[in-house]
Give the backbone structure.
Amino acid sequence: MYCPKCGQEVGDYTNICPACGELLNSNPQQAAQQGPVYTAPGPEPPMQKIPDYKVQSILLIVFSVVLCCVTCLTIIALPFAIAALVNSNKVSAHIQAGNYDLALAASNDTKKWCWVSFIILIAAIVIGIIASIALLSSDYYQNLLDEILSDYNYYYDYY
């Protein structure tokens, strides 16, 4: 379907042209009449529920901030989780405006940013665990621990 005012291609369920803001009518008889015509709203066409992934993006934000105490690398996932939350807010705004195609695109973007944030979060946790194991099992750490304990005249047999 195309906008009659600017010629921009719009989706089938779009009520307002995103380029010029023209109100789109799918009924040509109403478009030809002069003046506004008020009719009772009919049943809307059945459409699929468009997920907004708001809960997932909020959980990713919380986990990336909380797990920053374990490994600082998890903070890298935070900007992507925030991008997911911003896009999830666009989904409901597009649905309320009647732009279902844009809502579906925003939902897909939200899903993409959630997955990117989740993968970075898991990778940061795994890298943090491997780095901690490598550090704690190194001879340098054992020598440093022995030096600190000997400074305080505390001897502990950890072998």
